[in-house]
Amino acid sequence: MFYSINNSEFKVSVVKNHISLFQQRNQNDPEIMVCEWRDYSHVFIGMDEGNEGNTILIQLNPLNYVYIGIGVFSFKTTYPIVKYVSKIGGSGGYPYPYAIDTQQSYYLMLDMVKIKHMKTRDPSYHEDPYYWYYEHNRTLHGYFYEPNAAKKYKKLTADEKAKVTKPDYIHEMKSFGKRMGFSAIRSRVLFQ
């Protein structure tokens, strides 16, 4: 099967035990194979109504994965992933991919955030963990977790409405993340 990844320059071919990643940087450029995998355990194909292959998650072994979406990155998990969902949403028709591991931790691919345990009994949030992460959390706490606090600090404090030191900001994000069960997904960018 050949999949065009939504809103990205990547295409993926999945044939038997062989996955090929193609990239086309500009519309007039040829597609170039930039990577391939022959040794992997499983491939999760992101699906939504009529939109099969909008993102892809490759399980290299029980705890190592490659995500293909708007970018391509590798990451490790603590427990094996057992479910992968990639629904199309928002006004731009973007995929909102997430994975769930054997311990019910959620991995939000767009934000590179792991939610250790979703602290809610409302089942609708489990169907849309991005909503819970973005809206529910911000409504209750006035802000939301930033997984890369050191990098975002300068951008967020540019208007100087509040003087917060970088170490204080990083500490607050780590503390807030710990209370909420959030942590950054440590990843390595392969292609962007």
Q: Explain this structure to me?
A:
- The chain has 192 residues and is an alpha+beta fold.
- It has one domain.
- The chain is built from four helices and 14 strands.
- It has a five-stranded antiparallel β-sheet with strand order 5-6-7-8-14, with no helix packed on it. Strands 9-10-11-12-13 form a five-stranded antiparallel β-sheet. Strands 1-2-3-4 form a four-stranded antiparallel β-sheet, with no helix packed on it.
- It starts with a strand and ends with a strand.
- The model has no long low-confidence stretch (mean pLDDT 86).
Rg, rounded, reads 18 Å
Write the element-wise H/E pattern from the N-terminal end onward: EEEEEEEEEEEEHHHHEE
Structural class assignment:
alpha+beta
Helix percent reads 10-25%
Secondary structure: number of strands = 14
Q: In percent, how much strand structure appears in the residues?
A: 35-45%
- Average residue-wise pLDDT: 86
From the spread of the alpha carbons, the general shape counts as globular
Strand order of the largest sheet: 5-6-7-8-14
Number of helices: 4
Question: Would you identify the regions where 5 or more consecutive residues have pLDDT less than 50?
Answer: none
Largest sheet: 5 strands, antiparallel
Overall number of structural domains = 1
Distance between the termini: 23 Å
What brief labels describe this structure?
single chain; 192 residues; globular; five-stranded antiparallel β-sheet; alpha+beta
Quick rundown:
The protein has helices at 123-127, 129-141, 149-156, 166-180; strands at residues 2-4, 10-15, 18-23, 32-37, 42-45, 56-61, 64-68, 72-76, 81-89, 94-101, 106-108, 113-115, 182-184, 187-191. It is of the alpha+beta class and 192 residues long. The strands form three sheets. A five-stranded antiparallel β-sheet has the order 5-6-7-8-14, with no helix packed on it. It has a five-stranded antiparallel β-sheet with strand order 9-10-11-12-13. It has a four-stranded antiparallel β-sheet with strand order 1-2-3-4, with no helix packed on it.
